[in-house]
Amino acid sequence: MIAKLLSVKSMPLIALIAATGPVTASAAPVDPNRIADARNSVVVVVPAWQGVRQGFAPRTTDRRIAPEGSGIAIVPGGYIATNDHVLGDPIAVDVRLADGRRLPARIVGRHKPSDVALLKIDTDLPVFTIAPGAPVAAPACAIGNPFGRGLSVSCGVISAVMRSNAGFNEIEDFIQTDAAVNPGGSGGALVDGKGRLLGMVSAIFAQGSDVNLGVNFAASAALVRRVVDDLKDHGRVVDSSLGLETGDLPAAAQSTQAGVTVLRTEPNGPAFKAGIEAGDIITKVGERNVQTPAQFRAAAFLAKPGDVLAVTHVRGDKTLEARVIATSSQRR
Fold first, then answer.
1. Do residues 34 and 194 touch, judged by C-beta distance below 8 A?
2. Is-catalytic flag, 313?
3. Rounded distance, CA 8 to CA 287, Å?
4. Residue 197 near residue 191, CB atoms below 8 Å
């Protein structure tokens, strides 16, 4: 479903979408049998809205039809993850399985900052195996519901990982792909060549339209599981905090250093206790390189309260590593 358009001054038009396009040639071999099996873990999500007749989809403000969305089975028990923007403000939600059955679903929880929502049906589905990694240039296939025409597959490669600068959501950890993605199935699956889950198809970066231009994004499986696990267990996301605020590096420092500046630490907070000080430059959180505040926010969000994070930071001419214990934040 096309849920909203985000227009940024001096930037291309960004369109939230919901789908995959027709099958295209893969840049590298994939296992068609495993891809076919993976389709059984993808569903069509069919919200119903007040004042919209059954079988009809609402139109966006520029009169384009907003079609059905998609969802993925990511944890056992009939739980289905989808994009929050797919749901809109529904009075009911159904899902249509790969075998054609249509079942009612209930909303377990929603998390707008990451654009992830969790549904539940009374039928268990085969759950995706999570891919062990997402190497750039490796094959990737998107499975979803293009233009509301039913599940189909498009293939390409992984173009980039750990994207946090697309501008769609407050919290972003996107895998970028050139696998064709078109309006009709946000919430679909991005899988590797063996049908293992890389992420949940979420958005397309378009210039002047919402058609595929080969720059498409899927929320990483790690981000989706982080949100889904909390929604399943608590009905909401228990956010984490490292107790510090970051900002961009001063222009003068950017020629010699990459990272984010620590603007302040909370008194007696996790970062303060671990020895991080205002003015330090954070370069890594765990194994993730950090170059922008958005990347730092994503890396911190992926940790759950109680997790210990290795934070690499620079002070003067010294490179240090702090062990920071994430704490609970009640903001969400």
1. yes
2. no
3. 32
4. yes
Give the pLDDT confidence of 204-252 residue by residue, as tens digits.
Answer: 776 665 566 778 999 999 999 999 999 999 999 999 999 999 999 988 8
Nearest Cα neighbor of 260 from 220, 291, 226 is 291
CB 178 within 8 A of CB 156: yes
DSSP state of 184: T
d(CA 72, CA 324): 33
Catalytic residue from among 164, 186, 202, 240: 186
Question: Do 154 and 182 form a contact (C-beta atoms < 8 A)?
Answer: no
Concerning whether 186 is annotated as a catalytic residue, the answer is: yes
Q: How many residues comprise the chain?
A: 332
Report whether 103 contacts 122 (CB < 8 A): yes
Q: Which of 41, 84, 85, 154 is catalytic?
A: 85
State how far the Cα of 242 lies from the Cα of 155, in Å rounded to an integer.
Answer: 38
What would the two tokens of residue 143 be?
């499975």
- The C-alpha angle 227, 31, 1, rounded to 5 degrees, equals 40
Instruction: Out of 94, 115, 178, 280, pick the active-site residue.
Output: 115
CB 163 within 8 A of CB 153: no
Give the pLDDT band (50/70/90) at residue 53. low
Other CB atoms closer than 10 Å to residue 267's CB: what's the count? 8
Catalytic site includes residue 329: no
d(CA 179, CA 132): 20
In this prediction the pTM is 0.85
- Cα separation, 26 vs 215, whole angstroms: 16
Nearest to 91 by CA among 58, 59, 65: 58
Which tokens go with 262? Answer: 């620590």
Q: 59 - beta bridge partners?
A: 65
